[in-house]
Amino acid sequence: MEKAPHDIIVFLIITTGILLLMAGFILTIIFLYRRRQMTFEKELEEIRLDYTNNLLSTRVEIQEQIFQNVSREIHDNISLSLTLAKLQLHTINFGDPAHIHESVKSVAEHISKAILDLSDISRNMNADIVIQRGLLAAVETETGKLRNTGLYEVEFSVTGEPVFMDGQKELVIFRIIQESLNNIIKHAKAHTIKLEMDYSETLLSVVISDDGAGFDMNEPGKKESAGLTNMQKRATMIDGQCRISSSPEKGTIIQLSIPL
After folding, report:
1. Domain boundaries in the chain?
2. Which of 61, 99, 128, 187 pairs with 231 at a CA distance of 20 to 30 A?
3. Whole-prediction pTM value?
4. Cα–Cα distance, 165 to 206 (Å, whole number)
5. Chain-centre distance of CA 94, in angstroms?
């Protein structure tokens, strides 16, 4: 009977010690979890910052490319049309009514062409067609312009259930497609262009192929000259992949994969 108080005290001490150990263990777990959470949040913020910086860099690069295209279009097309119109105005024979009529008609055609070219440039510079109307409408417009030139047989197809993505993401995809088509126009000497877009549950797959001259993939500098580096960089910014395959006289295939 005399040992009972002593046993109770020992029991309380042991119990208190165990509770203190458990409390310390729990606090340690909470501390480690909180530190790990803070580290994760810091890494996440660094990833976000890196993504933002890279996206800004990509957007600046896209703007620079657009301005270069605008400058080239103004020099090659609009400037030529307006110069021809000016020359014809200076050479009008006011003593010949028939000549006046034909000259004025020709001048009006040159000015109309310059206006249409300016309108095309405006549409190319404006991202609203992508952000407001969506990627498919923008691609349809772009392929339609190629088809209307009469220089190419253009096939555009969409399979699967289209998914509307973030406007900036769709804009980057559109610029990759635009650059691919521009490369075909500049270098491929193609007759047929195929653009296929397939929407699966988790992936958007874009395949752009042509029957043009192609190139040797192993030749130094060829991949870079075809704009592959820029397209790959842009694809990486939206967690995608861009692959290219080509061989001389067998055309080129560009495959773009974007997770949805």
Report:
1. 1-125, 129-260
2. 128
3. 0.57
4. 15
5. 53
